[in-house]
Amino acid sequence: MYKYILFFLLGFQIAFAQTDYAKDFGEQNWTNFVRTAGHGLSDIDANIKDAQDTHLFGIEVDNSLTGYYESFLDPTEKLAAIKEMATRTKEIGNHAFVYTEGLETITADAAKKEHTFFKDHPDWLQRDINDRPAVFGGGTAFWISQDDEDVWISPYAVEWRKIYMERIRQIAATGIDGIFIDIPYWMTHFDGWEDTWASFDVYTVEAFKKETGLDAKKDLKLGDFSDANFRKWVDFRIKSLTDFMADVAKNARSVNPDCKTIAEIYPGLDESAVRVGADVYEMYDVVDVVAHEYSGGGGDAASKNPDNWFNRMIGMYTFRSFAEGKASWMLSYSWSENKKVEPMEPIKNLALSNLMAGTNNWDARGHVMSGSNHIETRKEVYKWIAENENTFYKPRNPMAPIGIYFSPKTRNYHPDAFMESFEGMMKMMLQGHMEFQVVTPRTLENFKGNVLILPDVRCVSKEEAAFFEKYLESGKGLVFSGETGRYDETGNRYEKNIIRELVDISRSNERVISTDSQKKFIYYPQCPGKIYTLLTKSEFNEAAWESSFQRSVFFAFLNKFKTEIINHFKIDTDIKIEASPFVSTQTALVESKPHVFIANFAGLKSDEIMTQTTEKDIKIQFKAGDEAKVFYLPFLGEKQRLDAKYSEGWVMCKLPPIEKGGVVWLEN
Q: Per-residue pLDDT tens for 261-306?
């Protein structure tokens, strides 16, 4: 709700693709190819033409049916508007999705009305532990107008949920292609509510007691992760919102099997996901798409420094792993009335990062969902995406990756420590130009790489430990560090560290490199990922601004780690990349062809410099025969064949100077 400043009772945001857009999605679906933005309702025909002119694909119907109390009670008019748009969309061969709220509802001009949501149903609201209701007025957030009443509802309020799911079924029955649910959160994101760990309403407290036997108001220490009962509360809150979204998807499909459920979530990977209870790792398992309102640090694209850009890339690559082939839409922001720089380059830089990570672009004005900061730049970018969408949106399959393990339970109970280690390891993969794959508990059994890194994965279940043991016994390598394996999946401490037991390590304060060829591992007492995170925080931006890295401490550390991993595990790869650490690379198979996705962040400076320092002398080698061809697609440019030389089983090429980035691939 909070993205749309202009709202009409039957208003809708629309974004159309070209009317002749037709595509065989194969095993994918329309959501994998979305490139979108919002529009107002002043003239539908003009909006259609504008959207066609700017090469949009995807229709957003901003209807807020459940987000306003009046239409929540009587949805007739809004349902008719949704049905009309669903029909119009099908006529031009496109797809539409309707925007509505999750657990938030506004009563407009509440001060003048006898009946408001809060007045009629105070027991349905979320509450803090002192019974303060989650009801707010104008000024609390920019989307809440003066005299409005804004409430946040418990997903366990039985009668409300019954009505809500009926509304979901009614929306789906219009023939709409998707339902976009805005921020299904526990109220912990308004001022004064950040540390409440809500909700303690009677319905939620009763549900928690039924599941655990515990009284949420008496039997746990709020905010204390060493308390087992509080950890149960953390798990319960995450599961509750995941189950709520699963219920939305189930109800939508019950009347419209092809209707997609889209969850808009703003927390990324860090502790905020635990606090608000909307964990995208869990959400991806029950919805069709996650729309990430995600920055990765540094604010909008115009305000990011190079280190922020790499953090953003790490977040997006991790989302793509969570998604397991489902779409990841990036509702991110490029520029907001910045007096120092123009918006054109930030729009391009944001699109560059999205595309190289394989995520979908959403152009927006400022910090709302609609409009554009520069419509001509959107046209240029979206036209190019439309022409090259298969390159970026067809599945990317690993070749011979190093696995980086993301442990949801460790993140839940030890968020700050884990994220420093995980992000540092990922950053070394991107900046060291090593092929990587983010591995999760859901994908662990299917991981085919020969080396798996556990970056301070403190919480390890016995099932995970059994897999790691089998992995080692198969001759593959394990890298682990620090507190890895100290706790079980509930956060309880093992009597003996379950991972060190696997490899018979008795002393935890020394680095250990295996000598047993049957069990290959490296143990670091301090996680290299955490160390690298700290080094890049202090050095990376200055180095990137000066395009100088050879004498930096972070680069020496990166090279030492990379050399040790490659040599000890005898890592062999079919692609070799020579590039500076200011360039992010991902290697993958796309339609059975080896691809390298390149994004350059050298020289970018927050609110000052929006054009990258050109990267020169990037060299790539592919293991291939002498008849292989190498192609390069520069960002916003045309495909070109590179001059490649063959020698002893390798095809070698030097890339032209790269400003923003591009894609290189091999064709046999």
A: 999 999 899 999 999 999 999 999 999 999 999 999 999 999 999 9
Summarize pLDDT for 174-201 with one digit per residue, the tens.
999 999 999 999 999 999 999 999 999 9
pLDDT, mean over the chain: 93
Burial group, residue 390, by CB count within 10 angstroms (0-12, 13-18, 19+): exposed
Query: Omega before 199 cis (within 30°)?
Result: yes
Q: Which of 124, 141, 37, 13 is nearest to 72 (CA)?
A: 124
Q: Give which of 558, 611, 563, 565 is closest to 580, Cα–Cα.
A: 558
Distance CA 510, CA 505 (A): 10
Strands (E), 9-162: 36-37, 59-62, 96-101, 104-107, 135-136, 149-152
Q: Any idea of the CA torsion for 295, 298, 300, 303, to the nearest 10 degrees?
A: -160
CATH architecture of 402-532: 3-Layer(aba) Sandwich (3.40)
Our measurement of the distance from residue 79's CA atom to the centroid of its chain's CA atoms, rounded to an integer in Å, reads 31
pLDDT at 280: 98
The residue assigned the tokens 């070698």 is: 652
Give the integer Cα–Cα distance in Å for 653 and 644.
5
Adjacent-strand bridge partners of 403: 437, 452
In contact, 521 and 528? CB cutoff 8 Å: no
Question: CB of 609 within 8 A of CB of 603?
Answer: yes
In the chain, domain spans: 30-111+155-193+232-390, 402-532
Residue 647, classified by CB atoms within 10 Å of its CB into exposed (0-12), middle (13-18) or buried (19+), is exposed
- Asked if pLDDT for residue 16 goes beyond 60, the answer is no
* Cβ contacts of 14 within 8 Å, gap of 6 or more: 38, 39, 41, 44, 47, 48, 51, 59, 60, 61, 85, 96
CATH number of 30-111+155-193+232-390: 3.20.20.80
Distance CA(523)–CA(508), nearest Å, equals 9
**Tokens encoding 480:** 């682990």
